[in-house]
């Protein structure tokens, strides 16, 4: 069983390799042509490092704004919880469905992470 899977994997890898060898250059050129407005000139390692640092520190600068938004959201949830006796059935149903959807995505993610097996057994 394992040998058959290994052979199938080798076959698929070889097919993918041939596809990339035939179409990879054209795909690269097409993608670069479509997205040339995003390329910074000159495309050097130094420029890439500079852009990487800009991205990192820009994200760091956005942390206080996201921190405040988190606390506003948390206070909103606390207010809803305090006034839960005024909560309508529709709102509770929407919240329950949202929680159920999150749980379902978690389960699907776990199954995918185990290689689409339900038991976690790898043959």
TrEMBL record:
Location relative to the cell: Mitochondrion membrane
InterPro entries for the chain: ATP_synth_F0_gsu_mt
A GO biological-process term: proton motive force-driven ATP synthesis
This protein's UniProt keywords: ATP synthesis, CF(0), Hydrogen ion transport, Ion transport, Membrane, Mitochondrion, Transport
Domain of life of the organism encoding this protein: Eukaryota
Short name of any one Pfam family annotated for the protein: ATP-synt_G
Any GO MF annotation of the entry: proton transmembrane transporter activity
A GO CC term assigned to this protein in UniProt: proton-transporting ATP synthase complex
Predominant localisation class: mitochondrion
Family note: Belongs to the ATPase g subunit family.
The protein's name in its UniProt record: Mitochondrial ATP synthase subunit G protein
